[in-house]
Structure formats: C-alpha cells, structure tokens
C-alpha cells in the first residue's frame, strides 16, 4: 500500500520544553495489556523505580482489552514521566518503549483503502503552527520510509467494506476538490461541501444496502460545472441567515465553564473574548465568569460582527488561508474516524467552524492587531493568536468525546442540522 504524508507533517518534530501546551499535561494515557507487557519487565529489570512509580496498574477486575493501567499524573496535571519538557521513558529506554498513544500523537495515520496517509492533530501547538500558517492547504506527498511499528494506524474505513465505507475515499476526494476552488470565496466553498454532503447523506450511512458509487460520481461531475456552482452560491448568499436560536446555542457553549485543570487555557480564552465584547467599561460577565442575565446576546453578537469586519478588512486574505487550511485538514481526517453516517462529521465541522471563528474574531488581541501599523509585526502576532486559539479549542472540544457528544446532541435537539441551519453557521 502506498504511503503518503501531508506536507506539513514532513516538517514536524516534537519541540519538547519549548512547547506551550505539552501533550504530557492533562490527558490521561491508558495502557493496554501490550504496553504494560513490554514496559514493566524492562523497567523492573533495569531498576528504573521512578518510572515504575509513574505507572498505575488497575486491579484485575477493572481491566479490559484496551486498558490495564495508565500513566500517573501529579497534582499539577503533568505526567510523572515528564522531566524538563521531555519524557523520561523515551529518554532512558528509547522510543520503542513508549506507549502506543504517546508514540503516535500528534500523528493521525489512516488507512483509507487506497493509501496510508499521515496528517496531524491540531490539538498539538507545533502541528497547528505548521498546518495553519502554511501558504497553501495541506497536500499529499509520497513517503518511501516504512512507518515505525509502534505507531497506531486507524483502519476503520477499510473494515467490512459495505457501501458506506467503500465510498469514503471518493467522497473525500470530491470534498477536497471543492475546497480547492480558489476562484470562489472560502465561505462559498464551504457551502459547496455542505451542499454535496447533504445531497449524498440519504444514502451515505452504515448498513445502506445499495452501493451509492454511481450517484456520488454523478453529483461530483455536476459540481465540477462552474456555472452550476455559481447558481448554488447565489442561493447561499441570498438565503443563509443566522437565527436567534443559533446565537443562543453558540454563546451558550462559550458561556459554559469547564471544571478541570485540563481546561484552564480554554476557560481563560473564552473569558477573554467575552469580556472583550463588553461596551466601554461594561463587563458582560458576572463575577462567576458567566454571561449575566442582563446581558443582551444580540448586543454581544452585534459587537462581534463589527469586530470581525474590522479584522477582515485588514487581514481577510491571510485569515481565509488559516481557515482554508483548517477546513482541508479536518476533512482529510474526520470521514475516517468511525462515524456511522456522513451527517455527523458534517455537523461537527460547522460547529467547529463557527465556534473557532467567534473565539478568534472576538478576541481583543486579534482586534488590537488592526491597530499595529507595521504589517510584518501585525501578521506575526495574528499568526500567534490563530495557532493558540485553534489549538486550545481542538484540545478542549475535539479531543473530549463527552463534551463533543453533548454539543452534537444539542444540535439535533434544537433542529440546527438542516441545510439552511448549517449554512447559517458559515455566516457566523
């Protein structure tokens, strides 16, 4: 099977103590039986007592195939294997001794059925930097080197090749083609993806009986017609409008306080932007850090839109590149992550898009960049902010299954999942 990397991952390496948000903090690493079987004998044999103390083995009755123990975190939330920004396990015993998840992260290696492709998770600051700040969208490049055997490969997409999974690869190819249409504004390209996915969603789900390949191919060819796409774009620009319900939903998420040391950076981020939307000296937040009942969400959203336009007027081209790279990276990955139908990654994407845009455009330091006269200095600061905001968001939302499921459940419950409703997310 051919192996490819997305080009920004060819430049990736762990920056250890220079990382602003190490993956060795916050996340608990579960150890399957295979990891413990390779670690414990060597640690005990070599007398690495401090490493043994950093591993907790579960009682036998609590074990299951995927978890026989975990790496221990200190009170500061850091893995006890961490020493001056580097993993002692890696340093003292070598990369081959790393647990599967530690060795693989932030790489995401997917067997698509056609290729084996390596992309990166934007919850890693260095991956976010390389991906978002690149001057072009992620592009596949061949890699002749074999993958290390200790890296995890996601092969869900090629298991039990029923029609849904069999057609993920051509679906991904059409989505990428639509996102590459640089002659259209980014928001219109995102709408083309929405239109395409909604048109194929009635027959793109697990256990569908009839192979949808011919219908996907026909729609893909039809959407290669620029005249057809221009007509779709006219409908989007005329008809897509955000609703009060959508504003309530998005600001309701941003109003939620996540209780854990793992979420300190995210909570600081959302509080910064919400306070930044205050008018004059007014603070829209109570001392609890939540939006007060006296605060009008309409006013907050109006101020957000004003700030967004100011930022786009100065940096629109660069910001579109950030979010184009974000969108392409998302769709390279999320079709292959185990969802039972195409609607789930579709809803997820537009929630991510709207929330990350609010976090970015409403951030007072992003707005402050428009007042920096020198373009080089302004763009350098803007680059720092987009990396921080997207990375913190992805580490908090994308990597937290419980939080993500509750958000997606609310999208369905509030009936924000139709084509017109999801199109409104693009307008945020």
Q: For the terminal residues, how far apart are their CA atoms?
A: 41 Å
Structural class by helix and strand composition: alpha+beta
Number of helices: 18
> How much strand content do the residues show?
5-15%
Gyration radius (Cα, Å) is 23 Å
Domain count: the total is 3
Query: Whole-number average pLDDT?
Result: 91
* Oligomerization state: single chain
Q: What is the element string, with H for helices and E for strands?
A: EEHHEEEEHHEEHEEHHHHHHHHHHHHH
Unreliable spans: none
Kindly state the percentage of residues in helix: 40-55%
Sum up the overall morphology in one term: globular
Q: What is the makeup of the main sheet?
A: 5 strands, mixed
Kindly state the number of beta strands: 10
Strand order of the largest sheet: 9-1-8-7-10
Helix and strand layout, with pairings?
Elements: E1 2-6, E2 30-31, H1 33-46, H2 49-52, E3 55-57, E4 69-71, E5 82-83, E6 86-87, H3 88-93, H4 100-104, E7 107-111, E8 115-120, H5 125-132, E9 140-142, E10 153-154, H6 163-166, H7 168-179, H8 186-200, H9 213-222, H10 226-239, H11 244-254, H12 264-276, H13 297-333, H14 343-361, H15 364-369, H16 375-398, H17 401-413, H18 419-427
Structure, described:
With 428 residues, this protein is an alpha+beta fold. It folds into three domains: 24-104, no CATH class; 157-237; 240-427, no CATH class. The protein has 18 helices and ten strands. It has helices spanning 33-46, 49-52, 88-93, 100-104, 125-132, 163-166, 168-179, 186-200, 213-222, 226-239, 244-254, 264-276, 297-333, 343-361, 364-369, 375-398, 401-413, 419-427; strands at 2-6, 30-31, 55-57, 69-71, 82-83, 86-87, 107-111, 115-120, 140-142, 153-154. A five-stranded mixed beta sheet has the order 9-1-8-7-10. Strands 2-4-3 form a three-stranded antiparallel beta sheet. It has a two-stranded antiparallel sheet with strand order 5-6. Strand 5 and strand 6 form a beta hairpin. 35% of the residues are buried.
